[in-house]
Amino acid sequence: MDTPIKTRKTVALVLNRGDGQPVTTAFRRTALGRDDPLARHREVAWEGRGDMAAGRATFIGELEVDRYPHTETIVVLDGELQLRAEADFEPSSPPPAQTLLGPAPRCRSDNVFTDDKTRCRAGTWDSTGYHRIVRPHPVNEFMHLLAGSVRFECADGTAVTANAGDSVYVPQGEPVGWESTQRVAKYYVVQTVQD
Fold first, then answer.
1. pLDDT tens by residue, the chain, 195 residues
2. What backbone phi and psi angles, to 5 degrees, belong to 49?
């Protein structure tokens, strides 16, 4: 007698339609745990292993949350979402002394995400102004400047200036210098690639 083969059903759940049409996906109102700040507004369509869930939330107003209790991807479909967070800054290492063209800066960072498998980190960083030589960048880095201005010098002598509100990407190994004359703050996502 043949043993039946168990197959797992593949499901694609439509959570929202871009044209505003209703979806047939079933949702149930539930929280993502006891400390979910959106508990009263959340609808979940799927829950899986590793505390994964997919769903939606409709919310109008303001929330104050001391510490967000889970990792979440949020797509704003209508209106706007403003997030304000206080970084939990700790002192971080300045650039190596041999790369500096002036006094060492005071640097701080709040590394809020780490993925050892992909060697990625993300967080917030700030520093007093400093000037550094053109040298290979040690990581792949996306940065979004929150405050200040940076002049990035390239190996061929050209320069790019980025100001608060600008986003910049520097590939690992790309020769680049740094010059800032005032406090600079940025969000960053960095990845170290092994050769």
1. 455 545 445 457 889 888 889 999 999 999 998 899 999 999 999 888 777 899 999 989 888 887 788 878 888 888 888 877 778 899 999 999 999 999 999 999 999 999 998 899 999 999 999 999 999 999 999 999 999 999 999 999 999 999 999 999 999 999 999 999 999 999 999 999 886
2. -65, 155
